[in-house]
Write a structure and sequence with these properties.
By secondary structure, the protein is an all-alpha fold. The protein has 21 helices and four strands. It has a domain of 189 residues. The protein starts with a helix and ends with a helix.
């Protein structure tokens, strides 16, 4: 067990050590300063020329959002067409069929919004063509979309008074060419050396130790796994995701992948400090997020390494902790760390089955996604926290009798209304979706059975499975409690709608707030200015997040995972 905890500690230290220089580098990329990847400039200029884009043109926040939404609408259609037609397209050695309309609707939206919720099994639900030209492509472009949105917000905050927030296309392309692609290539080469497959052959026929023939899927996994983690995407090349021995073969690859999940979300917070020259504020935000992440991680490790009390009651020793749904090569502690990492971000990949976690671990995982601000997805995680900063500034200003200001700009009713809508949308989508599913399950059993049934577990755990699905969708996470039969028209359409609203309305609101504040007259700091880079304000923001976000979900958590814990 001490060795397991040492491995966990090394992973956390590695994240922290790498995030600082990467954050500094990211700020330089978005500022347009010289970096060692400037040799990519001809490639970028070629892309702009082919697409007819003027990358030097400054955009106001409305034009910025318009460009982002039009691009995403195009890629949605792209994904739908290829997913439904994949059975007739090349690179399909295993003869996998095309997806149905409702499944393609869910899959295309899911990967478009950086969620990667999978209502299919990776190796049998997709072909190599769609794995590369839909899934992997979307994992780059949608991660870059979130990063570009944050870059626009930072650009607006760095200027004293401006009507523009930068160029969406420039931020998008540089996110891919200068950040995501180099890191993904580096990780990909390491994964190939560790045994992750990279080829285009079909299923391999092998003979097991029992003498039984088995077909083992392979494919270009090493090209896709790096960006799935770095871009907080999480969609597995194989159905069992990073618990699959070909997708995550060794403890070393497990460490690298877990660090990759956290690396960019951590670095983006620090990049904000370097970009707007407010390092103390960035360190404060980073500290709040890190504190929450470490508390969650410690609690989950404690739960998983102590084992299941019902098994203890049977007199069976659990020296390695609760190992149901976990891989022996990773252990309970490292699986718990991954569960915390993947849910404080919008990653959603798994190296063990979350459905088999201890009930309180499941509670923490859901709460991480329901709060949705502890690091979060690349770019958008910080932007969610930014929304709560606006609320905390406004509330704090009212409490102490000072004009609410953030970075020299007055926070007024219009910004607060937008922030309130963004914050309340998240619990609305999750709770309404769960309520609808629960109502149909109880009062329309014929409808549920006509879809093949939904739940393999009854009672509080069954409620947890439905709650987790909508929580994961609204948070653009993508992981799931896999006791839920989710590949049905109801779940495909319902989750698809939640995915869309959960992704784009917050981004629209957050960019709008940044744009509105940027246009206001800059007010120099004075003795009466509310300081936002202090530990007191950090605690205030934490309290606002916990009260508004966490307590919204306490009643449903009490009926689901907490009730299950109390029944053990």
């Amino acid at each position: 067990m001490n060795t397991e905890l040492l491995g966990v500690g090394l992973q956390v230290v590695l994240m922290l050590v790498l995030s600082y220089p990467l954050g500094k580098y990211i700020a330089r990329v978005y500022k347009g300063e010289k970096t060692w990847l400037d040799f990519m400039l001809p490639v970028e200029k070629f892309l702009y020329k082919v697409c007819g884009i003027n990358a030097d043109e400054e955009m106001n926040w409305k034009t910025f959002l318009k460009s982002m939404l039009i691009l995403n609408a195009f890629w949605f259609i792209w994904g739908m067409v290829f997913l439904m037609a994949q059975g007739w397209l090349p690179l399909n050695p295993d003869a996998n069929a095309g997806q149905t309309f409702d499944q393609a609707f869910n899959t295309s939206i899911s990967f478009l919004v950086n969620c990667n919720l999978q209502h299919y099994s990776g190796e049998s639900g997709l072909t190599y063509f769609t794995q590369l030209f839909v899934i992997m492509f979307f994992q780059f472009i949608t991660a870059a979309t979130g990063m570009a949105a944050m870059a626009g917000v930072m650009h607006s905050m760095a200027a004293k008074t401006t009507k523009t927030i930068g160029n969406f296309w420039s931020f998008l392309v540089r996110s891919c060419t200068r950040i995501l692609l180099p890191l993904a290539l580096l990780l990909g080469f390491i994964f190939i050396l560790q045994g992750v497959p990279m080829g285009f052959d079909g299923r391999m026929k092998i003979t097991t130790l029992e003498g039984v023939e088995q077909l083992v899927s392979q494919g270009p996994a090493a090209a896709i796994v790096p960006i799935k983690q770095l871009g907080t995407n999480g969609g597995g090349f194989f159905g069992t995701n990073s618990s699959h021995p070909l997708e995550n073969p060794t403890y070393f690859t497990n460490m690298l992948q877990n660090c990759a999940i956290m690396l960019l979300p951590m670095a983006m917070v620090l990049a904000f400090g370097f970009y707007v020259k407010r390092r103390k504020l960035a360190y404060g935000i980073f500290s709040v997020m890190l504190f929450a992440y470490l508390v969650d991680t410690v609690a989950m490790i404690y739960q998983e390494t102590n084992g299941n009390p019902r098994i203890d009651a049977m007199g069976i020793a659990q020296k390695n902790g609760s190992m149901e749904g976990k891989e022996i090569r990773f252990g309970a502690a490292s699986t718990a760390l991954w569960g915390s990492s993947t849910t404080v971000t919008s990653n959603g990949s798994v190296n063990g089955m979350h459905d088999s976690m201890m009930p309180l671990s499941g509670t923490i995982e859901m709460l991480n996604m329901q709060i949705n601000t502890w690091f979060g997805g690349v770019g958008v995680g910080w932007m969610n926290y930014y929304t709560f900063i606006i609320m905390a500034v406004f509330i704090s200003g009212l409490m102490v009798g000072r004009t609410p200001e953030f970075l020299g700009k007055k926070v007024e009713a219009k910004e607060m209304k937008i922030a309130t809508i963004v914050v309340l949308l998240h619990p609305f989508l999750i709770l309404v979706g769960t309520a609808l599913a629960s109502y149909l399950f109880v009062h329309a059993p014929g409808f549920v059975e006509s879809e093949g049934g939904w739940l393999k577990n009854s009672g509080s755990h069954g409620l947890s499975e439905m709650l987790y699905e909508f929580t994961s969708s609204a948070a653009n996470n993508g992981s799931g409690f896999e006791g839920l039969g989710d590949n049905t028209p109801f779940w495909n359409y319902a989750c698809g709608i939640v995915l869309l609203f959960g992704r784009f309305i917050p981004i629209i609101g957050q960019v709008a707030i940044a744009g509105l504040l940027a246009e206001k007259k800059f007010i120099p700091e004075s003795a009466g200015t509310l300081k936002t880079d202090t530990s007191t304000f950090g605690m205030m923001t934490f309290a606002v997040i916990f009260i508004v976000a966490a307590l919204s979900f306490f009643p449903v958590l009490a009926l689901s995972s907490i009730a299950e814990h109390l029944s053990l």
